[in-house]
Design a protein that fits this description.
Radius of gyration: 20 Å
Distance between the termini: 24 Å
Order of helices and strands: HHHHHHHHHHHHHHHHH
Oligomer: single chain
Number of helices: 17
Helix content: 55-70%
Strand content: under 5%
């Protein structure tokens, strides 16, 4: 935990002293890459099982998916890495982490001037730590963010929309199906949706979603749906198991309430709500409230949405109005980020504590 706290202090100092300073952003980026690349195999989950798969694999497809089923594109990536770069699985997982961090950095740099605020939020919200646990999703997300860097998702042309549709489809098919959630961003650009994007309507949807979470109304609905349709699937099976065992995603009602309350405050304080990154963040909170209670994989979908909302948080850092609501945006944001970060460390979310450096020898 000490390592994470030291980085917290360094990032907080650099980001607040110079939100736009590129030299500082390079220091932050390098630090985050070093930490993710040099982590020991005990830091994070699934490392052991992933490494067993890695060691068994070669270009012969019969050697794939020995312990955990991987998507075909991820299998090919591992084979390529193992054959041409290194047969050490920890170097492979570290490289994926570095790719994830760099792709987010490039994405953030395109859409916000306050790059250091974006990197600070990336770290404190736990979005950075996702790659310690869900490497396949993060690798797929990194590729998609890289594509979004070269097209304008705020005001996409018809050509860019087509590129987005094709990219999301193939990345979801070859790397991880979770990426299909990013089709949500295309909804934002439909004119009927834009007309509905008012502060009152967005807050209403968030409020309804919190009621669904609090009453756990989704559980009997999902159970009846499965009984009537014989629906099957990995996540649905996880959800059924959790319902039967009385387990949940690990998000307490207090944490859900904090996340929901901050999102409502963010919408109220925002100069305008017609922003693609705020829209995606709101979709993530609604998804978390409705489905996050079922299984941790659904909760992680919310965290992928946060990759985009982080851009909005950094965009309005210097543009939010100093009215009665927006005046305290900066301290409220920093307090919120710190609470989420401390919660991650205390609860050891994703088994990232304690941190140990990996030996390079």
């Amino acid at each position: 935990m000490f390592v994470y706290l030291i980085i917290y202090i360094i990032l907080m100092f650099l980001a607040l002293s110079a939100p736009k300073q590129k030299k500082y952003s390079h220091i932050i980026l390098t630090t985050l890459c070093i930490i993710v690349f040099l982590r020991e195999k005990t830091v994070g989950t699934d490392i052991t099982d992933y490494s067993i798969n890695f060691r068994k694999m070669n270009w012969n497809e019969s050697t794939w998916n020995h312990l955990i089923p991987f998507e075909p594109g991820f299998n090919y990536f591992i084979c390529f890495f193992k054959h041409y770069i290194s047969n050490n699985p920890m170097i492979c997982w570290g490289t994926i982490g570095v790719i994830y961090v760099i792709c987010f950095y490039k994405f953030a740099k395109k859409y916000t001037n306050n790059i250091n605020i974006a990197l600070l939020s990336f770290y404190l919200l736990g979005t950075y730590f996702l790659v310690f646990n869900i490497m396949r999703q993060c690798f797929a997300c990194a590729i998609l963010l890289l594509i979004f860097t070269y097209i304008n998702i705020e005001k996409p042309s018809p050509k860019n929309i087509i590129i987005s549709i094709i990219s999301i489809f193939f990345i979801g098919l070859l790397l991880h199906p979770t990426m299909y959630i990013f089709y949500t961003y295309l909804l934002y650009h439909l004119k009927p949706i834009k007309y509905l994007l008012t502060k009152k309507f967005m807050i209403l949807l968030i409020g309804i979603s919190f009621i669904i979470f609090y009453t756990q109304a989704i559980i009997p609905f999902l159970t009846s749906l499965i009984d009537s349709s014989s629906a099957e699937g990995k996540l649905i099976n996880y959800a059924i198991r959790n319902i039967q065992n009385g387990e949940n995603s690990g998000f307490s009602i207090l944490k859900i309430l904090l996340i929901t309350s901050f999102q409502i405050y963010l919408i109220i304080a925002s100069p305008k709500v017609q922003n693609i990154f705020l829209f995606m963040g709101t979709c993530g909170v609604i998804f978390l409230n409705c489905f996050g209670i079922l299984v941790v994989e659904f909760a992680r979908v919310y965290e992928l949405f946060m990759c985009l909302q982080i851009i909005y948080l950094s965009q309005i850092w210097t543009t939010i109005k100093n009215n009665k609501i927006g005046l305290f945006f900066k301290p409220i944001l920093l307090l919120y980020l710190t609470i989420i970060f401390i919660n991650i460390l205390i609860k050891n979310y994703g088994e990232i504590v304690p941190y140990h450096f990996r030996s390079l020898i």
